[in-house]
Design goal:
alpha/beta; about 35% helix; Aspartate Aminotransferase, domain 1
Length: about 350
Amino acid sequence: MTKELKKKSEHGGDIYNNEVIYDLSVNINPLGPPESARQAVSSAMNRLVCYPEYDKAGLKTAAAECYGVSADNIICGNGVSELLTAIGRICRNKRVLIPVPCYTGYEKAFRENDIVFHYLKREENFLIGNFIAESMEDTGAEAVIFGNPANPSGGLADRDMLIKLIDRAKKNGILFIIDESFIELSDIGEHGSIIDIIYNYDNLIILRSVTKAYAVPGVRLGFAISSNKELLKQIERELSEWNVSVFAEETGRAIFADPLREKYLEDSGRLILRLRSELEEHLQNAGIDHIPSESNFVLLNTDRDLYNELLEKKILIRDCRNVRGLGANWYRIAVKEPAGSIVF
């Protein structure tokens, strides 16, 4: 009798339809939420009878001080996913270039657009390179989006190369969207961000996630940052009123004002590096091929049904069969306990 396969979801985090002890399918900070975030959620209980701040001025100011920009260069979202959907709407009817494999939410957000896919190469570890410039121009793209670090491969784009791409896009009137949701959790942390150059490029939008960096996916909070205020207004018009809850508002303000925030991220970086090294060593010993990662997750390839093998042990990983450019036999494992001690 053939054993029935377990349910596979299109995203990670499906702990509700599976019996799971360890969820390694979602890429959040393995250190867990900082104490400031826990206290903020508790404090927000006092505002249950209140609407959130309508213009989110306090949250924007806290984020602006943290990121080193002006508050009017930031808009807040119910996670990066909501912001992606809004950006997709304002780009309606534009030709959008999406390098793949990538986060499946990009394709969903721009589904009403004319999408052109650039297939990245396995032998180059699915890394973004200068060739994207030619692809932008050859395809007549009007917008381009990708993650840095990339999800699900975990690779970082070279900063100098990235700036050259943005510069070339500006000269050609192309909107450039960089998703930095995992940048704080990358090997070089905030040093990999390009927020510092936003005032040089009015065609640039940077997305940042509080959800991933501070391990609060249940709160849902993300930001879009750009020097183009008119563009931000267009995006904001696509968002719902009061789209950021009092819990997200209190959590974001507390995290950004936390005097221990930098130490928290430094501690996170050390933990990620240790756990990822242990995980990659186990994969190598098991003869499982994987992509070198610079972030808090590892993409691997094996003919084994690893999803169901681990689910039998109540460990959930991300099956990447629905990721364009990958397909069957590809899996992503988040770097957190007990990933570093899994016996494959």
